[in-house]
Design goal:
Layout lengths: L1 E4 L27 E4 L11 H11 L4 E4 L7 H6 L3 E3 L2 E7 L2 E4 L3 E5 L2 E6 L24 H16 L6 E4 L4 H8 L6 H13 L5 E4 L6 E3 L2 E3 L4 E3 L2
Parallel strand pairs: 1-2, 2-3, 3-6, 8-9, 9-10, 10-12
Antiparallel strand pairs: 1-13, 4-5, 5-6, 7-8, 11-12
Helix pairs in contact: 3-5
């Protein structure tokens, strides 16, 4: 089983994964997955809050996978050792808490997932660099090029992408879905990803916008927890 949900901003929105809000977990094992679509928030500061919620997650029956959003401590993430998992690169925080790195493709439960975390913080002017905001929140040009090249090689090998998981969404669907104008360079990168995969994917899922909303193959999640596999 694979479930998806939106931003958890630990500890603000993590209650959606307790047993009252998400009773399905009682039948799950470590071979089942919940994927948080960015702004996970666990890696913020190495303090009592971090230790409490890491212990809470380690006791869960399922394996929690997460993308990085814009509200993460990216300095901390970059210091973590990198390993391979299900075909892509990850950071293992605990046995059942795993960060899916940007631009990677993972084969899980017989499905292929392309993952790209990151987004621009519209409130960064009110935040402090290295304390509550990190410039690495926006994927670099190199990360974007490597991700697109990985996708092209994947297609050249005759493989398909079943699902795209990102924190924000392609620029070309921002206004149709949310009626706002955005200048996030991450979304321009996702336009290029969209053009590579649009004819093959079963669905594109993202968080960031603090809404639960659907438009054709594009699905924004916030407090909903949905099963896709």
């Amino acid at each position: 089983m694979i479930y998806l949900t939106g931003d958890t901003h630990i500890p603000i929105d993590i209650s959606k994964l307790n047993t009252v809000s998400f009773p399905e977990q009682k039948k799950m094992t470590r071979e089942d997955y919940v994927i948080v679509l960015g702004d996970f928030g666990l890696l913020w500061h190495e303090d009592a809050t971090y230790r409490h919620w890491l212990d809470w997650l380690k006791k869960k029956s399922f394996t929690l996978l997460w993308l990085d959003g814009n509200h993460e401590n990216h300095d901390w993430i970059e210091r973590l050792p990198v390993t391979e998992w299900h075909g892509g690169k990850v950071h293992v925080i605990a046995e059942n808490v795993i960060h899916l790195m940007r631009g990677q493709i993972f084969e899980i439960e017989g499905k292929n997932f392309f993952v790209m975390g990151g987004a621009d913080s519209i409130d960064k002017a009110r935040r402090q660099a290295g304390i509550s905001w990190w410039p690495q929140e926006v994927p670099s040009a190199r990360e974007g090029m490597e991700a697109l090249e990985r996708l092209r090689r994947w297609h050249e090998a005759g493989k398909r992408i079943d699902f795209v998981l990102t924190h924000t969404c392609p620029h070309e669907i921002v206004y149709p879905m949310f009626q706002v104008h955005s200048e996030d360079p991450t979304e321009k990168l996702l336009d290029a990803v969209n053009h590579e995969v649009i004819d093959e994917i079963e669905g594109w899922y993202f968080g960031h916008w603090h809404e639960s909303k659907d438009s054709w193959r594009y699905h924004c999640l916030y407090n909903k927890v949905i099963r896709i596999v």
